[in-house]
């Protein structure tokens, strides 16, 4: 090969490599920057009192305990509603539904469900759960609303996890006279479980960060007591952060960053939990 | 094609002991015809080998007998496929019960990602056996039948995926035996195995043929000659549909083929 051609090829190779590294570096710096800023600014606000006390003076003093608990309840509520429906839909679409125009239309609808702006889910929840079902502004309405939003993700991840189960396992099960449902129940679902759980937890942690939908279906700005039943109103971290940042004059910056830090910690710890569960299940399965 | 009463290369088989038969079977996948007008009788408690070049429909033919083709959208069967004189494509047939009677071993060993014990107990459990003692008996009996017991008796609770390829395939055979089938279908069961493991499976097949009707699809001509009592040679026609060229006792088909195409194939002139 001619020397100049070789040099040209090496140059383009180096340029491409360099660009890829720069792009990656930008992402890393950005993520570290965000985390660092939140930790540095918010770290000072974190105290035992901040984590365990109810807020006072419109959030300027006291703690954020009710918001932490409210967010935790919301995540659980979302999981309870979104996981079973998501998994069952995923099973139906992959194992039972025939490949026809209706199934394709449903699949398309699910993909589009993920793209619906979250405030639209909020209005939907207001109309359906709060007003039509008379659940009122409540934890229940908010959980159902967030579950609707999380469905797109739980269905999609369930479907992918189920599709990833090798056909050989299904055939092996059917070939000894297991029914289709037995095959799903004893072979497909256990195999798909890590993927399903991961998807559900990620959907849950995303729900934990939502502000817009819960704004209209039950989140309260200041509510020193904890919700006593699913029909009570509640506080939540992202909504609390939004109100103290946007509507409370002379709000101490440190406290705001503190709320952000706690929210970030909650979301990240659930993501870590998802990873641990997935690795655990995988390890148990493949260890001999 | 009817088989005359004849001493086959391994045992005597009389004419009226056919276990399975097909009559004028056409198999379609959508518009594509995969099998054309296949008629043959498969003798009871013997090994029937199905040979032929790649893509001739051997596996499709095998999967007729446990209706595994049903899983493919657009698959359609014409003609009769009989088990003990009963048309298994009749509307009244329970496919699940059929598959319990007609077990299948696949090309690639496919043990489930669970313990050796649970793999063998899988079928019986699905059929309602949950008594631990009874299951233990079934597992031991099936593993002994599959000539695997001595190798795995101390690791029944270990993952089946830790076994060697040959052991995995024998485990899959044990898994089928555990539901007490009458017919065992084998789809190139040794193609993923080394020669030593292959010989073990072949020995196993011979011993199982005392009690079970076996149909084996194989690419390996020597294997067909070694293990089978009967052999069917399938070939693609011009539109790629598989058709039966010749069927008879293995010894005859391999030493004195009646059809020129069979001779060309078994002597390695194509395929």
Using the CA coordinates, give the radius of gyration of chain A: 24 Å
Derived from helix and strand composition plus strand pairing, the structural class of chain A reads mainly alpha
Oligomer: heterodimer
Q: Helical amount among residues of chain A, as a percent range? A: over 70%
Domains counted in the coordinates of chain A: how many?
2
What is the name of the CATH architecture of chain B?
3-Layer(aba) Sandwich
Secondary structure: helix percent of chain B: 25-40%
Question: What is the makeup of the main sheet of chain B?
Answer: 10 strands, mixed
Number of helices of chain B: 10
Overall description:
The complex is a heterodimer of chains A (288) and B (271). Chain A is mainly α. Chain A is 75% helix and 1% strand. Chain A has 2 domains: 3-45; 48-286, MetI-like (MetI-like fold). Chain A has helices at 3-42, 48-52, 65-96, 101-113, 118-132, 139-163, 167-175, 180-208, 212-215, 237-247, 253-286, and strands spanning 55-56, 61-62. Chain A is globular, with a radius of gyration of 24 Å. Chain B has one domain (17-266): P-loop containing nucleotide triphosphate hydrolases (Rossmann fold). Chain B is built from 10 helices and 12 strands. In chain B, the strands form 2 sheets. A 10-stranded mixed beta sheet of chain B has the order 7-6-3-4-12-11-5-10-9-8. Chain B is globular, with a radius of gyration of 18 Å. Chain B starts with 5 loop residues before the first strand and ends in a 5-residue tail after the last helix. The A-B interface holds A 98-99, 166, 168-169, 171-179, 182, 186-187, 191, 285-288 and B 66, 68, 71, 73, 96-101, 103-104, 106, 108, 110-113, 122-123, 126-127, 158-159, 161-162, 172, 175-176, 178-179.
């Amino acid at each position: 090969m001619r020397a100049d051609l070789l040099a040209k090829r090496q140059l383009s190779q180096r340029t491409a490599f360099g660009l890829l590294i720069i792009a990656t570096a930008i992402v890393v710096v950005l993520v570290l920057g965000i985390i660092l800023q939140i930790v540095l600014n918010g770290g000072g606000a974190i105290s035992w009192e901040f984590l365990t006390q109810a807020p006072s003076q419109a959030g300027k003093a006291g703690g954020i305990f009710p918001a932490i608990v409210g967010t935790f309840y919301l995540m659980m509520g979302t999981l309870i509603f979104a996981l079973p429906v998501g998994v069952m839909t995923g099973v139906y679409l992959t194992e039972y539904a025939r490949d026809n125009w209706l199934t394709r239309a449903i699949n398309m609808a699910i993909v589009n469900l993920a793209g619906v702006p979250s405030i639209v889910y909020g209005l939907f929840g207001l109309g359906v759960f709060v007003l039509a079902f008379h659940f009122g502004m409540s934890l229940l309405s908010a959980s159902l609303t967030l579950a609707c939003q999380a469905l797109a993700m739980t269905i999609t991840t369930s479907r992918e996890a189920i599709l990833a189960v090798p056909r050989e396992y299904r055939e092996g099960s059917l070939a000894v006279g297991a029914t289709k449902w037995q095959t799903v129940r004893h072979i497909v679902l256990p195999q798909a479980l890590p993927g399903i759980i991961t998807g559900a937890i990620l959907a849950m942690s995303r729900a934990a960060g939502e502000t817009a939908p819960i704004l209209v279906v039950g989140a309260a700005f200041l509510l020193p007591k904890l919700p006593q039943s699913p029909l009570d109103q509640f506080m939540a971290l992202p909504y609390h952060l939004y109100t103290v940042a946007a509507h409370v004059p002379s709000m101490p910056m440190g406290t705001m960053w503190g709320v952000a830090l706690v929210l970030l910690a909650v979301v990240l710890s659930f993501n870590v939990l998802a990873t641990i569960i997935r690795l655990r299940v995988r390890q148990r399965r493949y260890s001999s | 094609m009817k088989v005359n009463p004849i001493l086959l290369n391994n045992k005597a088989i009389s004419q009226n002991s056919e276990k399975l038969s097909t009559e004028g079977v056409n198999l379609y996948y959508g518009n594509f015809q995969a099998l054309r007008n296949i008629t043959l009788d498969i003798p009871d408690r013997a090994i029937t080998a199905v040979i032929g070049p790649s893509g001739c429909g051997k596996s499709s033919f095998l999967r007729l007998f446990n209706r595994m083709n049903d899983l493919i959208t657009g698959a359609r069967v014409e003609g009769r496929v009989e088990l003990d004189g009963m048309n298994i494509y009749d509307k009244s047939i329970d496919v699940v019960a059929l598959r319990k009677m007609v077990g299948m071993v696949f090309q690639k060993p496919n043990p489930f990602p669970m313990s050796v014990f649970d793999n063998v107990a899988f079928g019986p459990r699905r059929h309602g056996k949950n008594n631990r003692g009874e299951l233990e008996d079934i597992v031991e009996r099936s593993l002994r039948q599959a000539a695997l017991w001595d190798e795995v008796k101390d690791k029944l609770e270990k993952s089946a995926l830790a076994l060697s390829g040959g052991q995995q395939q024998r485990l899959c055979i044990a898994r089928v035996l555990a539901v007490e089938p009458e017919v065992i279908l084998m789809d190139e069961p040794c193609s993923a195995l080394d020669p030593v493991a292959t010989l073990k499976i072949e020995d196993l097949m011979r011993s199982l043929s005392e009690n079970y009707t076996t149909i084996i699809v194989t690419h390996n001509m020597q294997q067909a000659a070694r293990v089978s009592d009967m052999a069917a040679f399938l070939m693609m026609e011009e539109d790629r549909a598989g058709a039966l060229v010749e069927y008879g006792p293995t010894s005859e088909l391999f030493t004195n083929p009646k059809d020129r195409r069979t001779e060309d194939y078994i002597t390695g002139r194509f395929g």
